[in-house]
Design a protein that fits this description.
The complex is a heterodimer of chains A (109) and B (111). By secondary structure, chain A is mainly β. Chain A has no helices and eleven strands. In chain A, a hairpin with a 5-residue loop joins β9 and β10. Chain B is mainly β. In chain B, the strands form two sheets. In chain B, strands 2, 4, 5, 6, 9, 10 and 11 form a seven-stranded mixed beta sheet that branches. In chain B, strands 1-3-8-7 form a four-stranded antiparallel beta sheet, with no helix packed on it. The chains are: A mainly beta (109), B mainly beta (111).
Chain lengths: 109, 111
């Protein structure tokens, strides 16, 4: 079967750096995506990694290691508005996304 | 402005009623999706479409139907609402890339 694992909750302090991990088991691999969802809102696309390495977009970076079936989302200079749930997802062979259960990021002042 | 729209935003309805949740996108995306999500939980795929006249069932499709007569429109119909249908329903679309664009969602309460 295909599955993704990510921590259910991560707590960090405002201004700090936090890493949210995601491991996956898939029959084929086409890339790893990250989405952010605020309470009561809809998911918004953050990043997509098809190749190994780190991709940076402002305060957010996403990393992929295909050999380890592992990726992470790195958030720097945390702000209170970053409090949200973060989902990793991988597309299957039909371009359907398989979703992780989400990581709730709690930021303390 | 290119976007994806869902109506209604909130809906309270009685058990046994038939309801249709609307979803329209102006991005010209071929692929569209319906998800069900309870607060703080993962997304469950209900239905999806690869284009006009294409509809496929996801994991939670047994009590709902969809249609795709036009590229921009992908409505979801619950034939007989039940309290177990109380949830948030999210519509999404995607083009040639891997990123999905989501609508704001419909919060459905069945009483």
């Amino acid at each position: 079967g295909q599955s993704l694992e990510q921590p259910s909750e991560v707590t960090a302090v405002e201004g700090a750096i936090v890493q949210i991990n995601c491991t996956y088991q898939t029959s084929g691999f086409y890339g790893l995506s990250w989405y952010q969802q605020h309470d009561g809102g809809a998911p918004t696309f953050l990043s997509y990694n098809a190749l190994d390495g780190l991709e940076e977009t402002g305060r957010f970076s996403s990393f992929l290691s295909r050999s380890d079936s592992y990726g992470y989302l790195l958030l720097q200079e945390l702000q209170m508005k970053d409090s949200a749930s973060y989902f990793c997802a991988v597309p299957d062979s039909n371009y359907q996304l398989i979703w992780g259960a989400g990581t709730k990021l709690i930021i303390k002042p | 402005e290119a976007d994806i729209y869902q109506t209604p935003r909130y809906l309270v309805i009685g058990t046994g009623k038939k309801i249709t949740l609307e979803c329209s996108q102006t991005m010209g995306h071929d692929k569209m999706y319906w998800y069900q999500q309870d607060p703080g939980m993962e997304l469950h795929l209900i239905h999806y479409s690869y284009g006009v006249n294409s509809t496929e069932k996801g994991d939670l499709s047994s009590e709902s139907t969809v249609s795709r007569i036009r590229t921009e429109h992908f409505p979801l119909t619950l034939e007989s609402a039940r309290p177990s249908h109380t949830s948030q329903y999210l519509c999404a679309s995607s083009g040639t890339g891997y990123g999905y664009t989501f609508g704001s969602g419909t919060r459905l309460t069945v009483v």
